[in-house]
Amino acid sequence: MHFANELLLQSGKSIRAYDISYETYGELNADKSNVVLICHALNASHHVAGVYLDAAGQPVKKSEGWWDTMIGPGKPVDTNRFFVIGVNILGSCFGSTGPMQANPDTQQIYGADFPVVTVQDWVNVQALLLDALGIETLAAVMGGSLGGMQALSWTLQYPDRVRHAVVVASAPNLTAENIAFNEVARRAIVTDPDFHAGHYGRHNVLPKRGLRIARMIGHITYLSNDVMNEKFGRQLREISSEHASGYRFSTQEIEFQIESYLRHQGDKFAEYFDANTYLLITRALDYFDPAAAFGGDLSRALSVAKAGFLLVSFTTDWRFAPARSREIVKALIDNQLDVSYAEIDAPHGHDAFLLDDTRYLGVVRSYFESKVLL
């Protein structure tokens, strides 16, 4: 959808003539009361469920939506009942206007000149999209990780437009450790010789080396120690016949399976993601803190919320630990709001919110059937 009007951002800057990509699933009912908005995390998009078909009508390989375990006919968020909207955030590299597009005022690629965006800006844009679709109220807004922050922000920015919020593996703000991980990843990108102060497009290069390292750092934080040990342990990539130990004793070659896995993830990421988008999104993560305007008092910050809430966390998620979800739960209870909370004992770390865990999916299904459908 194209928006011609100027959008004022939290930074004080503005953007105009921008596009927002979205996908819908299911059918909108007569009174438009069955809408579920899905907010995505760092490297995802508006394609949340289902598969794409080729010209012959056959499923395209590896085109499954990133939350296909959660959303679809008969799934926890049942598209036989709900009209689901997946929205790509402003500043992304998956269809919505971002650093890779041209500034309509200069006709030059935005690059590093794309304005800083925040979680609140994304929610405002999502609200404009709903306005254009003629949708006043959401049955639910839902997201995991950064998407969960957007869902939480919806209940504060537009409390009268949200009946329920489902916040998964998220937090009310980032810890100093989380901000530190983001900064190391950003420094890997901006110090890449091909970055060119964010205007690498003008030089016909891409800072892939920096992106690879950024992804490797991020991926480590998404997995738990248990999962890494179970999948890789100290397995060598290739046993050397030259040494009884099996090591090559090299400082540069890949020795361990975990090294090979991380390099593969980094290489894959650098082929499809934009470096400036990575900088924008991680900075938006850093900035999000609804309690900041209330002296750090989260209960006061959430006092305007009216929605019912479901929060889900995972025991081995150390990037967005269960204690962070419990902070939100306590603040909501302080405001006497309707809150359900599930802490899933799962070994998968932060990535658990994307996986097919029957207990987790069962919790979401139960909430939608018992609360959202009312």
What report would you give on this structure?
By secondary structure, this protein is an alpha/beta fold. The chain has two domains: 22-87 and 137-173 and 289-371, Rossmann fold, CATH 3.40.50.1820; 179-279, Rna Polymerase Sigma Factor, Chain: A, CATH 1.10.1740. 33% of the residues lie in helices and 13% in strands. The chain has helices at 119-132, 146-157, 176-190, 208-222, 225-231, 257-272, 275-287, 298-301, 322-334, 358-372; strands at residues 2-3, 7-8, 14-15, 18-19, 22-25, 35-39, 71-72, 77-78, 83-87, 140-144, 164-168, 308-314, 339-344. The strands form four sheets. Strands 5-9-6-10-11-12-13 form a seven-stranded mixed beta sheet, sandwiched between helices. Helix 1 (119-132) packs across helix 2, helix 3 (176-190) runs antiparallel to helix 4 (208-222) and helix 4 (208-222) crosses helix 6 (257-272). It is globular. It is found in: Cytoplasm.
Category by helix and strand content: alpha/beta
CATH architectural grouping of the largest domain: 3-Layer(aba) Sandwich
Q: What string gives the helices and strands in order? A: EEEEEEEEEHEHEHHHHHHEHEH
Largest sheet: 7 strands, mixed
**Spatial sequence of strands, sheet with the most strands:** 5-9-6-10-11-12-13
Number of extended strands: 13
The number of helical elements comes to: 10
Q: Give the termini separation.
A: 31 Å
Portion in strands: 5-15%
Q: What is the CATH top level name of the largest domain?
A: Alpha Beta
Spans where pLDDT lies below 50 across 5 or more residues: none
Arithmetic mean pLDDT = 92
CATH fold category name of the largest domain: Rossmann fold
Spell out the CATH superfamily of the largest domain: Alpha/Beta hydrolase fold, catalytic domain
